Amino acid sequence: MLNYTKQFINGKWVESHSKRTIDIVDPSTEEVIAKIAAGDEKDVNYAIDSAKKVENEFRKSSLYYRKQILLKISEIYKRRMEDLKNAISMDLGSPISKTKAAQVEVGYKHFVTAIQMIDELKFKEQRGNALVIKEAVGTSVLITPWNYPANQPATKIASSLAAGCPIILKPSEITPLASIILAEIIEEADIPNGYFNLVNGYGNEVGELFSKSKNVKMISFTGSTEAGAKIMKNATSNFKKIALEMGGKSPLIILDDQNIEENAELAVMKVMSNSGQICTAATRTLIPENMKEDFFRLVKEKVENLKLQLPSNTESEIGPVVSQKQFDKVQFYINKSIEEGAKILTGGTGKPKGLEKGYFIKPTVFIDVKNDMKIAQEEIFGPVMSIITYNTIDEAIEIANDTEYGLSSYVLGQNLDTVRKVAESIDSGTVETNNISKSLTLPFGGYKSSGIGREWGDFGIEEFLEVKAISGYFTTH
Ligand code: NAD
After folding, report:
1. Is 173 in the pocket of ligand 1 (CB under 6 A)?
2. Among 217, 347, 376, 400, which residue's Cβ finds the most Cβ atoms within 10 Å?
């Protein structure tokens, strides 16, 4: 049993004032594998004071210095990738052979991209005789979810340090092990005390205290739309800056000139990977009505061939979902969809045979789904795919946009003019066409209830900057 009762504050591991702990459960065995601190108000205030003390010196630091800090962190991160992989496979339950590429390496790339983008960003700009200056907003709190425990914190840490903001990381209380390793990495990088702090604890306790604090200048949050709404409300205590990355109900549109033999597997993996616990999961697959029968056959075959096994098994493609709560939520949606009239193509309620222990779910596909059903409107966050048919491209676009969310979308087609027309018509922060994955230098974030602000690359750094205009007779030198 691992015991992490300490917080990392002001450059040191200090015993949490609360003395309370949170159990961390391995979702594939349902056994408690670690305990972490459940921080309290004293921990929160100590971390905020430590960050606030160094706000000015860090804001004034040179870009060269910040690049050096990020470089050191990235080098140590690279060395600790195996540890990160093992930790995530344990507390998230993600398949061991997929975790490094899908979860850990992306975090490393965020550090490398931030270093590169510091040089692209205009921190000082001349407009006529005036200056426009972008400078660090100050003490920032990074609140992260459980589904990508290394790369979600990594992108926020990289951007905020590149901007020159002292930070406090508050990771998910369900998958905190990777963040503890991240704190060890930053400790080893030996950056000044207070620049980076880690406070573990519950969202509705320490998360709320951070959001309400008048000494916090910025909250960068990734998580559910409900928690994002609370943070936005609490942030009005001092009208702090907020960046919110929240839920999604992303459509994947297959156009009628597309070869579905080649794309059925892609459509399946876009929703089933990470047991469907992906904010950008393509949970609504839109297929032309006249292609549906072949597509159903192919999807059924692919889903039934998925290797659902213990995460420690190197053959495993899909592990359990993260918790009992998440298991119950997914079961609720499967039952609700049946009640609403959707038909099961494969999967269903209950646990898969041979995997009765652990939070395993049968990968499930629904057909005859109407876009106004709960299954098509609400984020399930599990291995559940809904297939919706359409007759015209305009109808496909209308269905794609008929959602409160707008995080991601996907278009597959041969005719690039049509692909582009569809991509430009969808209300979402990102559109991936023909499976060409997004560069980390591109902005990432959502329209509508999916979020406010953008992460990654220069857009991510900008979130942590304030803009100042100085009129007069000046030059940038
Ligand atoms: P969650 O909202 O329950 O928790 C996320 C984080 O917020 C945790 O650290 C939690 O402790 C904290 N938190 C909870 N309530 C809080 C409050 N009142 N004040 C301050 N902090 C609070 O989300 P989750 O269940 O960990 O993650 C799943 C959700 O995250 C899904 O909805 C998913 O779509 C979303 N997500 C979005 C993105 C994105 O980039 N848009 C990426 C990954 C996950």
Report:
1. yes
2. 400
- Could you tell me the pTM of the whole model? 0.98
245 as an active site residue: the answer is: yes
Separation of CA 221 and ligand 1 centre (Å)? 7
Give whole-number Cα distances, 47 to 15, 292, 317, in Å: 13, 55, 39
The number of angstroms, rounded, from the C-alpha of 376 to the middle of its chain's C-alpha atoms is: 21
What are 366-399's pLDDT values in tens digits?
999 999 999 999 999 999 999 999 999 999 999 9
The reply to whether ligand 1 has any atom less than 6 angstroms from the CB of 7 is: no
Q: Could you read off the pLDDT of 227-252 as tens digits, one per residue? A: 999 999 999 999 999 999 999 999 99
- CA proximity to 405, closest of 370, 455, 446: 446
Best of 279, 325, 333, 405 for a ligand 1 pocket test (most atoms within 8 Å of beta carbon): 279
Residue 293: active-site member = no
| Tens digit of each residue's pLDDT (9 = 90 or more) over 115-135 | 999 999 999 999 999 999 999
Of the candidates 50, 238, 221, 188, which has an alpha carbon nearest to the alpha carbon of residue 230?
Answer: 221
Instruction: Choose the residue to mutate in 92, 147, 384 for probing ligand 1, maximizing ligand atoms within 8 Å of C-beta.
Output: 147
